[in-house]
Amino acid sequence: MTTTKETWVGRGIPRVEDPRLIQGLGEYVSDIHFPGQWAMALVRSPHAHARILEVRTDAARKLSGVHAVISAVDWEDLRQPLPDMKPLSPPALAYERVLYVGQPVVAILADDRYIAEDAADLVEISYQPLTPVVNVEDARQDSVVLHPEFGTNILDYVNFVSGDGQEALKEADHVISATLQMGRVSAQAMEPRGIAALFDEKTQSLMVYHATQSVHRAKERISTFLQMDPNHVHVIAPEIGGGFGVKNGSYPEEVLVSYLAKYFAHPIKWSGDRFEEFLGTYQEREQTHHVQLGIKNDGRIVAFVDTYYQDNGAYPGGGVLVAHNTARNLMGPYRIPHFAIHCYTVMTNKVPQTPYRGAGRPQGHYIIERIMDRAADELGMDRIAIRMKNLVRPQDFPYATGFPGVVYDSGDYPQTFQDLLDIVDVSAFRVRQQQARAQGIRLGLGLANYVEISAGFGFEGVHFRLAADGRIELATGATGQGQGHRTALAQIAADTFEMPLEQIAVVEGDTRRIDKGIGTFGSRTVIMAGNAIVIGGQEFLEKAREAAAKILDVKTTDVVYHQGTFSAPGTSAKSLDWTLLASELQRASHSMPAHEYYFYSNTATYGFGCHGVIVEVNEKTSEIRIPRYVVVHDGGVVVNPLLANGQVIGGVVQGLGSALYEEMRFNENGQPITTSFLAYHLPGAVSVPDIEIHHRNYRAPGNPGGYKGVGEAGIIPSQAVILSAVEDAFRDQGLRLNYAPITPGRLFQAMHREEAKL
Amino acid sequence: MKPPAFSYYRPESVAQALHLLSTVEGAKILAGGQSLIPMMNMRLARPDALVDINHLTELTSIQDVGDALEIGALVRHDELLRSPLVRRHAPLVAQAERLIGHPAIRSRGTIGGSLAHADPAAELPVLAVLGDWELIVSSQTQTRTISAGDFFLSYFVTTLAPEEMLLRIRLPKVSTYGHIAEYAIQAGDFALTIAATSVDVGPSGVVRECRIALGGVTDVPWRDKTIERQAIGQVAQDSLWKDISHTVAEAIDPIDDLHATSAYRRQLAEALLREALHRAAQPKPA
Amino acid sequence: MVSITLRVNGTVHQMDVEPRWLLADVLREHLKLTGTHLGCEQGVCGACTVLLNGQPARSCLTLAVTADGADITTVEGLAQNGQLHPIQDAFWQEHALQCGFCTPGFLMTAVHFLQDNPDPTRAEIKEALSGNLCRCTGYQHIVNAVERAAKNLREKSGEKESIQTSTVEG
Fold it and tell me: Does pLDDT of C167 surpass 80?
């Protein structure tokens, strides 16, 4: 008799996180309230580039309820560079120069945030404005150098060549060129960044509650800056109100709150507000690419050449990673035999870039997808046909893209793309498009493919222990921000231990509970921590069997574990479940079984898929509506389809934001001018369509669980696919869109230029 | 983003409120707070004193006064949306209210606050100018009635003196049909451009009255009676609306900002106006 | 300081507040009801939405002094006797939240919306939620949850009616 084993993995169960959150009982950093805590507010630079001449704090200091007004002009410790921002770390507080609007200059500690903001108003800082450098074209000239000690505004240059590189363009029948750009976007998690710290003088230890994606790296940075024994710094991430990458890096507020809490031995909290989130939280995307695609008459790609400049802002901040990851994604899922990529990361007087959801993946795909559209148009070829011609085929696996370390390994790209075309029903759409056009309605279809490269570096671990109540507790250093890992990881563990889900408790983001961790970003947690459970769980079970053997008074080798029960067949010993095991161990004063396991892997996973979107454009208002959005997505072995759908849909909608509405804009002085939700528009419920998702589950060959990333699949091709669709709606006019986002105002201008040309 | 300190007064009558406005230095009125409080949170507004009129029940009624409705300045948006009197005699207001903010904004924001705030991209100032509303304004020493066309001076600036308070708004009852069309980047946001119309078509299909007002294109709600008069006596048909909209688009000099250039606003105004005229002139079921 | 009285989730609180304190801060900092979140302090994101005398209101745009005497319901007041409100349950079942930060505002908005609109279309639900921003979910599951809650509430009120009817008949 065969039975199908029922598993927890693969079931779309509602989350264990939710009962608290839906009752308003979740504790976010902003909800933490230490008795007597002081609130921190910051005076931030109003200049993009200036010398600080004088800082006058007397009036602020005198205000009732103010405890300290701190500038690095007097506090030398706070001139120390922020950890992890080499080679050009800013000081914790600027004291000589400011390099972007929003850079912190003075910190204020007061009884509450109201008073702290009053004091901030009273701080007087004299600046000597310097020439701001606000775009890469100017920055590259180096006529004004942001960091004179560095000598140039080019923070990083790297090139990647495969095959014959640029030379191969000669083999092409056509060379298609374009300059393609993406504006800056801001992640804008609903909870602004925040941090609260409490110093215990007795134990000389610092407890930090931190809205961070990586508690262990935060701990490292804080102990470095404070020159403290890392064993005395504990970082806890409570509930985090969204992260999307930008709550991962090194920020001035992190070390300021930590340092000041220790210095004053007083609890301090900084809850950033929305304005600070716009000014001080790192941003992403902004790049300009000069692309050439060499192509044969039949549409086959011969060579790809791209020189691009990332407007990185004033300090490293993680931007170089984004620039490099862009290069890694430029091939998309296509066979490109020769390429040459020149990647420049250029500093400007703006807040730094840091990885934001996608982190180079959307940029790379935007370029390859858009240049393929352009090539198809110029060759008079169908945009679908050119893609089919060049997609990596199943027989090509393992397929090395030519970029160091990238080897696509699984799935069927052409079949999946064909599935999308069938689902969208392209030929029926073309008929509808014609009919609509006759009625004055413009419809357009956009299609794009993608590969979602996830994980592939470092480690993540799990600390297993049997809790007193018989539940198995798993602590991981990966710190979620809403992904639902406490549920998904528990599902994996429930299968590993053949136990009901309620018997598993997952603890995230507490440096006291596990020694090491890297964090949650880049769609890595289920892959890394999930496999740590799969493998480490067996080792933990072995320890549990040893413990059970002691209680049962048999040899460990006699103990059999089956579906939550330890027994010793063939002996007179009775059987034990985990609860009984826990209570017997405690009664006997034996230690509880515990085990720590780290999963290391340099093998990335390669999810893939494609998006199809239909747009409806109102020529009169330039409004772009989205009647239909289809995703076909491979996420490998999907642990919880409900959560995976949530990730994909959420990613798509964020992508629609950066394709249609969202852009951080700066004026010629480097002033950000989109610093509220009235000027920086997030997509709202009315403007987003219901997203149709079709899963493909090609097991990842490179890890035991077979998992792949799902967090970025939704956002990767979004800008490419929307611009493609809008162009398609104006095919008769040959509309060319070279800039994302395509806001209504920009679309008006693009349409207008075309009209003027005609 | 916390408001600066201010002295707080909560009058129990309009008379007390007017007294406070004339005696307390730097006093401003707090009504629904949906525009003032965000500006205070951002510290773009720093009133020395607030006179909180939220408890003045004298200002919360909607009354039928014969040829007009008189609406208290403290009547909130959602009451305008629900009021049978407003639906019957000022249907365009009820229509426009659906476009104003969101339920949580409409439950607090007031008609008086919206007019006194004088945002040229807000709906009610546009309707006030379109409908020749009269604003009844008092200080401790005098009461005056201001026609909406004279009330708005520039962005966020009106003829209200610091010691004056808007008490009631008189909306002439309308028997004409109207329509409001607008385009905002996200639902509930301030519109890039608003077009409001009111059209009376006689039994023979000839236009007897036509009113046009625009929002979001200039520093105050825009209206031009000369252009309106061009429609009178003409057959109400799409070609007329096309011509009128085009004439208006040529006549305006729209503002440029972050979201829309002048040229884009001009096109929006033309398109929205054409739609609003067309819809207003549609024969309605009895 | 001004002395005010607020009735929050059925409990009457008398307290002294500074006139400038926002209702949201008084709920969060003084009454320790931290479920009401501050997302933008500008009235756009809706995370701070509470019911003020039964109507949805931005607690970041309402001074606590102005709310003197008001009856306020926050997210903490939705569940009754340990039973989740049908909207809370629907949010859970439909995976309508990820980070959960915006969720209290959505719940309060939806509670009020369904009182007046027991059988809404998806488009109506989206419009009703248009004053609340969510950065994680893309809204789709939230709309699903409001649909599910509407259905459950209708069934529940149907049950109540039939109970009442049978009482009358009996």
Answer: no
Q: Who among B42, B187, B271 is closest to A275 (CB)?
A: B42
Strand partners, A71: A106
Please give the single-letter amino acid code of residue A150.
Answer: F
pLDDT over 70 at C157, yes or no: yes
Q: Which residues of C touch A242 (CB under 8 A)?
A: 98-99, 101, 135-136
Tell me whether the CATH fold assigned to B7-52 matches the one assigned to B178-281: no
Check residue A328 and give its pLDDT: 98
Task: Give me A599's structure tokens.
Answer: 């999963």
Question: In the predicted model, is pLDDT for residue C162 greater than 80?
Answer: no
Please report, rounded to a whole number, the percentage of residues in chain B having pLDDT higher than 90: 93
Q: How many Cβ contacts (< 8 angstroms) between chains A and B?
A: 69
Class of the domain covering C2-77: alpha beta
Global ipTM: 0.96
Name the pLDDT band for A1 (thresholds 50, 70, 90): very low
- Mutation for testing the C interface, residue in B52, B107, B190 having most C CBs under 10 Å: B107
CB contact under 8 A, C63 and B37: yes
Contact: B4, C20; criterion CB under 8 Å = yes
Helix ranges, chain B (H): 14-23, 36-41, 77-82, 84-89, 91-97, 103-106, 111-117, 123-130, 148-151, 225-231, 238-251, 262-281
* CATH H-level, domain C86-169: superfamily: [2Fe-2S]-binding domain (1.10.150.120)
Q: Name chain B contacts of A665, Cβ cutoff 8 Å.
A: 258
CATH topology of domain B178-281: Enolase-like; domain 1 (3.30.390)
Would you list the domain boundaries of chain C? 2-77, 86-169
Q: Do C95 and A22 touch (CB under 8 A)?
A: no
In this complex, do A113 and B2 lie within 8 Å of one another by their Cβ atoms?
yes
Per-residue pLDDT at B258: 87
Work out the average pLDDT over A568-573: 89
Task: Specify whether domain A457-600 bears CATH 3.30.365.10.
Answer: yes
Residue B258: which of A674, A686, A749 has the nearest Cβ?
Answer: A674
Alpha-carbon torsion angle A583, A589, A590, A591, nearest 10? 90
The reply to whether domains A35-130+191-241+247-280 and A457-600 share a CATH topology is no
Cβ contact (<8 Å) for A484 and C98? yes
> Which segments of A52-148 does DSSP mark as H helices, in order?
58-62, 113-122, 136-141
b/e map A177-191, b = 16+ CB within 10 Å: ebebbbbbbbbbbbb
Distance CA C122, CA C117 (A): 12
Give the start-to-end residue ranges of the domains of chain B. Answer: 7-52, 57-172, 178-281
Chain C's closest residue to B190, CA to CA, is C44
Residue-level pLDDT at B79: 96
On the question of pLDDT at A550 being above 90, the answer is: yes
CATH code of the domain made up of B57-172:
3.30.465.10
Contact C138 A654 (CB under 8 A): yes
Using DSSP's 3-state secondary structure scheme, residue B83 falls into coil
| pLDDT tens column, C70-84 | 999 999 999 999 999
Per-residue pLDDT band at A593 (split at 50, 70, 90):
very high
Class of A35-130+191-241+247-280 in CATH: alpha beta
Tokens (6 digits) for B228: 């309106």
pTM for the predicted model, two decimal places: 0.96
Record: contact C92-A15, CB cut-off 8 A: yes
pLDDT at A6: 84
